[in-house]
Design brief:
elongated; 7 strands; 42% helix; seven-stranded mixed β-sheet; Endonuclease III, domain 1; Nucleoside Triphosphate Pyrophosphohydrolase; binds iron/sulfur cluster; 14 helices; 2 domains; alpha+beta
Length: 315
Amino acid sequence: MLQQTRVPTVLNYYPRFLHRFPDPASLAEAPEDEVLKLWEGLGYYSRARNLMRGAKYICEHFHGELPSEPDLLLEIPGIGPYMAGAIASLAFDKPAPAVDGNCIRIYCRLHALPLVPSEGSTYKEIYSRIKKDIPEEQPGDFNEALMDLGSLICTPKAPKCEACPLNDQCSAFLLGKQEDFPVKKEKKATPVEQHTILKIFIGDKILVRKRPSTGLLAGLYELVDLPGDMTNKEIQNWIHENFPATTSPDIRSMGKSRHVFSHLRWEMIGYEIHLPVSDSSTKKALTKSAVSLGELVSSEKYSTLAFASAIRTYR
Ligand code: SF4
């Protein structure tokens, strides 16, 4: 949970998640929708799916117990080198480096290394340096110290060098060039997508769709999501094309919002749309149209579904 998400946010989720899934077996057997619901709002849902895949693997290959060796941990889906090092050192006292962006920044500054963090050779260089430095005793404390130093003191901008326990041996500090290390690569502009989100009511039912099981926001529920920044008139046309039985849709704006993913930004405009149900044949025709687009659910069921937090404004 703490990958990409800050501690104060995770504190609202972790105890609840662990209470429901206290061991790999309970997570491995859980329905995906239930796991995603408990994850709802944390974002980066592939982490939840990887946890499930990992739990299944642990049950199938390690009798339901997490192994202690980094090499074995790396076999588990969803566990990469950082996680393997962190688990092996913190939980099992193994002297395994857990190299992330914090470690790379600290080591580049300590030794004035002009390296670019995203390059593979940088990871290898820092890994081998940490491998030499990490103690046999309390290796978990060493890794945790690096994590804390990176998040609290040796921050990307304006590091608090006066308070740093390493300032007497830090080359970048002694040179007065802390922020020159590591080397920054020019950032590419984030691609932007326009979306029009429609919350469509047919009577007291709401039209939802489940996203495909792979790709962005996989397996989560969403509302009708159309490409582009559609005007009221364009939406009216879309409604008449897709719900020919409707006569006078009630279209209300829910305003604009945005969501920033790690690699992409969504700019959204949302509308709440009520399609009047005047008689049973209209209801039947509208329901048939709706089912070709998704699923009609009651408000009770709607509140139990795991939605992408990207559309929380319109949820
Ligand atoms: S002295 Fe400053 S730059 Fe060097 S490790 Fe400490 S906080 Fe980072």
